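Backbone geometry tokens:
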Amino acid sequence: MTGHVGGARPRGASPAAGRGGFGARNVWLYFAGFLMVFGGLMMVFSGISAIARDDVFIPTPHYAYAFDLTGWGWIHLVLGVVVFCAGPAVVRGALWARVVGLALAGLSMVASFMWLPYTPFWALVLLAVDALIVWALCTAPGLAD
């Protein structure tokens, strides 16, 4: 018995809707949370490598944004840890985590853009991951409900 009058489910309702299962809402939140954990780990690793050895990265000369590589490493490390920690809260469906996730993914996109002269491929991968995080968090129903 499904708990609905007459034993039938309302039209358009999925079996997982309303019980925290693997419904459409949760799919996008799981996707965004997984990408946040993955993207956070990638940022942590790039931050550690920038902090550990400055000679690993070769900056492009005459780049408009010339920043200290160790400073960027700390920014990536801290931002990566925060993004990584917010990922599981997004999976649990916390509204505050979705809002924080959107803000963090936006900050991460800016940091990855500024990271382009040091590791172009890695920065582009992080930009793509962050764009998918923003898309998944905005696509999942329930943010404006």
